Every structure is written in structure tokens, then in C-alpha cells.
UniProtKB/TrEMBL annotation:
InterPro entries: PilZ_domain, Split_barrel_FMN-bd, T3SS_YcgR, T3SS_YcgR_PilZN. Keywords: Bacterial flagellum, c-di-GMP, Nucleotide-binding. Acts as a flagellar brake, regulating swimming and swarming in a bis-(3'-5') cyclic diguanylic acid (c-di-GMP)-dependent manner. Binds 1 c-di-GMP dimer per subunit. Increasing levels of c-di-GMP lead to decreased motility. Its main location: other. Gene3D superfamilies: Electron Transport, Fmn-binding Protein, Chain A, predicted glycosyltransferase like domains. This is Flagellar brake protein YcgR. Residues 123-238 form the PilZ domain. Residues 15-121 form the Type III secretion system flagellar brake protein YcgR PilZN domain. It is found in: Bacterial flagellum basal body. It holds the Pfam family PilZN. It comes from Undibacterium squillarum.
Length: 252
């Protein structure tokens, strides 16, 4: 039975790839484009940046760069499960390995594992979206022209995906015309840190709350994100998913 590609796969099952030929093609795509990928151990508490050095179809192995120090590589080798996430042409790729061994590749230290039996491929228009916690709301800072002067609005983040975000504009002051673009917006994501993004308005919706008050929910698309920022967003999404699953399973 293939190892589940990553955390929260019950929600990502529509994007699961099990064709060996396609899996190998995607892995070789990551290798040939020299893409950096994140390697997560201990439930994501440790993250290392690596890259694929070789995909050996005949020997059913993938070889990747080792971690920076010997102790880290030993922890990786002792892990029962290692998860990976990367980007190929801005499409999210996620997979997991059950056992990793330390090897030598072209006279340098490396790590090796079996070609995964399945992986997750998140298409551009199918990014997994998750709600952000209401208990510790995250603010999105958006510089906007209000009555002829630039004002930085601090709006609450509602949900996030690798493709964009949804925000709440309680005072309904942001111009939410579809297609309008806001540059130099800031998000401070826990465990990832502050990032600067360009947002484009895609939709808006008037919400009526239980107390009778109204709010405005605005959907925004990320524009021209760098791979490093996209990786940070993806790590934060996975962190939220792990926390959600822990709550559902009663794990503290």
C-alpha cells in the first residue's frame, strides 16, 4: 500500500497521483529544473531544504542532497516518516518516504529513499484552502488609496491557499472591484515570518452575521509570487492542517 503523500491527505485525495510513470516524470521535473524542496521530519517540527540529485527508475530510488550536519542526517535516517513539498512550474508537489538511508553520490554525502507509490499534485486552480484560526487572528496590511491619500488597512485573514487569500473588511472601505491590484501588502505568518505580496481582487461577498451585523469577505489572488514565498505559504498551510488534525484526533 502506498504511503500517504503528506499530512491531511483525506482532503487532498482528488489530487493524488498513483501512476508510476507520472510520479517519475514529476520527480525528474523537480530534478531537471533544480527546484529546492522542503524535507520535514518529526511531524514538521524540523524542516530542511534539499533538492533531487537523481531519480533511478531501474533501482526504484530517489537520491537527494543531505542535510547540513551529521546529526541532522542521523535524525532524518532514524525517522519513520519524512514528508516533502516543492513547486514545479508553480504547481505544488507533495510526497512522503517511509525510510531514508545515508549514501554517497558523486563522492559527496546524500540521502536515498524508494520512489514513492503516490504523491499529491496541486493544480494551479485547485490549491488546497484552509481557514486560519480565529483565536489568534492574522492581519493583512494593504496600502490603499482612501479619499485621495494612502492608508494602510489592517484586515483580518480568513483563509489561505498557495493561490491566494480571503480577508474580512468589516468597515467596507477597501475598493473590491474585481481585477484591482494592491502591491506591497504584508502578511506575518506564524512560524514563517513576514512576507510581502501583490494581491488582486477576484471576488467579494456580503456576509450577514448572527448578531445582524454585516461584513465583507474579499477573495484575493497572489500575483507573481516567488518560489521561496510560495514554499513559506505552503509550509504554513501544512502547519495549520497538522494542528487541525491533532484537534480532531484529541492530540494535544
Amino acid at each position: 500500500m502506498p504511503l500517504s503523500p503528506t499530512f491531511g491527505t483525506e482532503n487532498l485525495s482528488p489530487f493524488q497521483v498513483e501512476s508510476r510513470r507520472e510520479i517519475i516524470s514529476l520527480l525528474k521535473g523537480l530534478q531537471n529544473s533544480n527546484q529546492l524542496i522542503s524535507m520535514l521530519i518529526n511531524g514538521g517540527s524540523e524542516v530542511f531544504i534539499t533538492s533531487i540529485l537523481e531519480v533511478d527508475e531501474q533501482n526504484d530510488t530517489v537520491i537527494i542532497d543531505s542535510a547540513p550536519d551529521n546529526m541532522a542526517n542521523e535524525r532524518i535516517a532514524q525517522s519513520d516518516r519524512v514528508s516533502f513539498e516543492g513547486l514545479l512550474d508553480k504547481i505544488g508537489i507533495q510526497f512522503a518516504a517511509g525510510k531514508i538511508t545515508r549514501v554517497s553520490f558523486e563522492n559527496r554525502p546524500a540521502l536515498q529513499f524508494s520512489i514513492p507509490g503516490s504523491l499529491i499534485r496541486l493544480q494551479r486552480r485547485e490549491y488546497y484552502r484552509i481557514n486560519t484560526p480565529l483565536s489568534t487572528p492574522i492581519k493583512v496590511s494593504i496600502p490603499a488609496d482612501i479619499d485621495g491619500r494612502i492608508v494602510v488597512l489592517h484586515l483580518t485573514l480568513v483563509d489561505i491557499s498557495c493561490g491566494g487569500i480571503a480577508i474580512l473588511d468589516e468597515k467596507k472601505v477597501l475598493d473590491c472591484t474585481v481585477g484591482k491590484t494592491y502591491e506591497h501588502c504584508h502578511l506575518d505568518l506564524p512560524s514563517t515570518g513576514p512576507i510581502t505580496v501583490t494581491l488582486q481582487i477576484r471576488n467579494s461577498q456580503e456576509l450577514v452575521l448572527l448578531n445582524g451585523k454585516t461584513n465583507r469577505r474579499i477573495g484575493c489572488q497572489f500575483i507573481n509570487l516567488s518560489n521561496s514565498v510560495l514554499s513559506g505559504v505552503q509550509r504554513y498551510i501544512m502547519k495549520l492542517e497538522r494542528e487541525r488534525n491533532s484537534r480532531l484526533n484529541g492530540i494535544r
